[in-house]
């Protein structure tokens, strides 16, 4: 954070704490130069930042004034239905987002990265170090295909928190949730098979469907409840769908938690049409409410749910430790696991099993849930402050990802390109669709939230405003003025 | 090792050192009881073990005598040709061999496990511990899809030893060689594509072909030179083969090193028929001769070779770190890597890069090559001593795997079942074929060789002899007598 960002941050805090009230005049540039011992241009830049964020306004010859507080952006509504199963065509955006070497000067606001800086993670690093120091041969040896029993026992125990009664032998350890999803897809279908997905949907699952030559049927999804059961039923009646892939808890990217009765109805529908359910629970333990909601797997009486999870979001993605409870497709899943990676790295499994057994997992989760909830609200405020009033935002019930829907004229891929020069990257909406839908949407990450993150959000919001202005939308200033009216007109 | 095995081992050493010469009488049971302070039955069991191994013989009322030294078993000859591409039907044996939880009381003589007990591996454990202690965020973070640059640089440097000129950007880090092979298969072909393989062939590759719905064309293979080029050419003329998958260095399971001119001719053939080559080099650095032979990749002028490697055999399989140099299929390989596992575990990559950069890799290799060569000869002697004279054995030029071809009546799957009770497991031949060929063959591992291993080999050899006897072959004693004659008759 440079000087003017630090100063802007300080002023923003004062405004948010009510020290400066709406309509009140802020200190003059000269006063701030003297009080903070900074240059005139630093103060001017700080005021510009706050102004572009819509928090203050400059009145000619009068100085800077606090603007009335903006409402948080309203949630988006459900998308339109798709007509038929399609092949997944998007890859370039995903490749760009996941394959580029991280550049320390660029702010990756779009990534699915948790905060890995918490002190509650230290016992995990200690366990990793301890297992290496022990010079145990087990660390270096092939693991069995199914994975370390001690870790599977811990995962089965944790699953009880989501009311899933799993036996350690029901589980296969995988190289992250990616491999779990990949195994699940191949266990349920062959090339040409149709998978129904919520939309927007995690791009990793879509890419798995693409790579196995399957087709995808995108089902409209309610941003606060999940996949539309009516639309799904219609699709199940019309097409020979093999499986339904959903992320009911802390949905990525929409953040909703699917209500329990909705889960029950989804499972009943799957039974009626005899299709499988691939349940991505990778963010599940990060639900803000405690205890967390039961998984769909917990309702499973006939083994049709393949539950996929991992420690990548709740702990640390670099470990690459996930799991799958493949239900009735256990044998096929074992074959896919064998073919894909042979076995999972032993060292990280042992360290993780220790970390959980020693009781470090729950305190870490408690800390992260509280942090992510706090950050969610801060991020919603930041979006309210820095984005055009035409923006909609989700209300995540867990995890650390926010989905923004901008005015229809916005092209989020073009936005990302323009942001490159400003050293910020977002995740553009079309990544989350098989056919480039959600072009006016984007995903941002609030795992950490500090003035640097807010400055990055401000840059994105300003760029969105500029692009909409260029596209013939009302200019930023006017939009900000009309925020209340726009709200009412929706 | 129990008492009688220990005593047998001691006596065997004395015979091998020439202390007791061929035809000489060994000490009486009573003498040994007194000298070693053991029970009569211990001595009797020790003598029975040596007898079943063909090293000594009991003469009624005269005592035990050293038998003439047996010749090492001759190498097997080339197999018969296959008529057409087939689907891979074997999985049960592979599943059993790789999925069962290791049982510490059972001797896994068939596994592809290196010796991970060498002191030269300790710096690797120290590097793992150091990176965890550093509490570096990098350890816990997602890696980029392509893998750590520092490790790719080291791999590119090591590849020069096999005359491969690779740039770090040509490489993608994978979760073991398993993932590399899996990526390679899917990069070159879609369901229904035909892959030509050497035969016998690594079961992991066959299972990958199976799981992707491809077909396999098994090409007869010379146990000392590799895949038959004549047979391969015929197959290429007759079938639309997509790629040739071979393991030219330290072949698994045959152990040969494909001569350089053979590699050149294979590459020329691939060019002529415009097919890809998937080169499995996972054992390549363990060639006994130094410098090792150039890879086929080193001859590659048009990017048609997909080179797959890993540290699983040269260092430690539990790390699950491999790589692929996918040549012209780089982009497809990146997509398959993304879909399969997203990225590779960061911690082990960092530790490995340090280990190699600090100069620990070459000394470890030197040590292991010498050990494996020593063990190869000891294992050949043990097979000569304990297996029926009708047995053929390969002459591995690297690695730590021996391939035995028994009399045609032997069923190695039934053998493995009978060995379960005796707490030994071998890798039965049909695992290495798409359609259950090589039924009278088995693979055993000599990464470590000590009296316990020899006792396990003795149990396998005795069981083979028993089974052949039951199948109507000449009894064990007679076989041993006729060893010389049988040899001449081959």
Tell me about this structure.
Chain A has 490 residues and is α/β, with parallel strands linked by helices. Chain A has 3 domains: 3-66, Winged helix-like DNA-binding domain superfamily/Winged helix DNA-binding domain (Arc Repressor Mutant, subunit A, Orthogonal Bundle); 92-114 and 363-489, Alpha-Beta Complex (Aspartate Aminotransferase, domain 1), CATH 3.90.1150.10; 122-360, Type I PLP-dependent aspartate aminotransferase-like (Major domain) (Aspartate Aminotransferase, domain 2, 3-Layer(aba) Sandwich). Helices cover 42% and strands 13% of the residues of chain A. Chain A contains 18 helices and 16 strands. In chain A, strands 4-11-10-9-8-5-6-7 form an 8-stranded mixed sheet, sandwiched between helices. A 4-stranded antiparallel sheet of chain A has the order 12-13-16-15, with helices on one face. In chain A, strands 1-2 form a two-stranded antiparallel sheet. In chain A, β12 (392-393) and β13 (401-405) form a beta hairpin. Chain A is globular, with a radius of gyration of 24 Å. Mean pLDDT of chain A is 89; it is low at 475-490. Chains A and B meet through α4, α5, α6, α8 and α9 of A and α4, α5, α6, α8 and α9 of B.
